[in-house]
Amino acid sequence: MIWPESDNNVDLLGLLIYLKKIVKLLVIKTGMKLSTLLIFIFCLNLTAKSQDLDEKTASIIAEGRLLYHSEMASWYGTDVLQARFKSKAAGAGGYFSYSDGEQNKCVFFDRKEIPAPLITFIFDASYNVNSVKVDTSQRNFTPTELELFTIRQAALRAIKTDTIFKMYNNTNLNVIPLVSNEDKKVYVLTAPTINGVVVFGNDYLLNFDRSSQLLNIKRLHKNIIPVNYTGELAETTHSHLPETGDFITATDICTLMLYGKTANWKNHIVVSEKYASIWDCQKQSLTVITRGHEKNR
């Protein structure tokens, strides 16, 4: 069963408890076979559990997609900058990307003491470089951009000073700031600098308070997990320790959306103690099953 994002706010767990009471009355008053009622209750339990899994994974999927769109805007924004705006590239002090409605923006800022946007690339969902919009006007950061810039710089300082962060050969650390209402965080992903490998793990989450002060740093995967690919259709997997969590992570989803089709993977399976999270790399969709049901997938 595919667990898509849902707007259904029905409280199935509460409904299940209510219906169980009704079932007891039906057995007493109608003489209905208990086996029939038990099958009915079992089906309701499965439905309630499916909604519970859906609610737990919906936010992970949404955040993974945000990370993906940020990375895509950064990739293509950098390509356009280097190909068409070399003079601007020389004066760039850094960049960050974010989604704004249906648009995905990559903002390069200057090297001044108080930085400001140097050039902004605005992509639609296709990331077609031929239709990208370019803003070179002199302006200040928007309030959201200022928050993104601030927590990005704080994350870079932490990477330089905190020993929790690890660096590996043939990789870079990519810093992805996210701001949603009052929720401020920065993900740090490890990206390969060579072809033929997809890198999971060695990823981090930095949480910030309302005033953009760093609250804590969490290492999401304990290790780095390189997975080689040859371009042949394949199904791949990696496992999660309990401290990483029961489900696929937002960083896993981002990585699979970025590289899964290029690697020609059919599915990638993330196995934890309780669940198997199956990401369909072609359909960009998630299936979650309990470990006890693995053989029935």
List the helices and strands and how they pair.
Layout: H1 12-30, H2 34-84, H3 86-90, E1 92-100, E2 103-110, E3 117-123, E4 133-135, H4 143-161, E5 171-180, E6 183-192, E7 197-201, E8 204-208, E9 214-219, E10 224-228, E11 234-239, H5 250-259, E12 265-271, E13 275-280, E14 285-290
Parallel strand pairs: 11-12
Antiparallel strand pairs: 1-2, 2-3, 3-4, 5-6, 6-8, 7-10, 8-9, 12-13, 13-14
Helix pairs in contact: 1-2, 2-5
Name its key features:
297 residues; alpha+beta; four-stranded antiparallel sheet; 5 helices
Model regions low in confidence, pLDDT < 50 over at least 5 residues: 1-10, 40-48
Please count the helical segments. Answer: 5
What sequence of helices (H) and strands (E) makes up the elements? HHHEEEEHEEEEEEEHEEE
Assembly state (oligomeric): single chain
- What portion of residues is helical? 25-40%
How many E strands? 14
Span between N and C termini?
9 Å
Round the mean pLDDT to the nearest integer and report it.
87
Give the overall form: globular
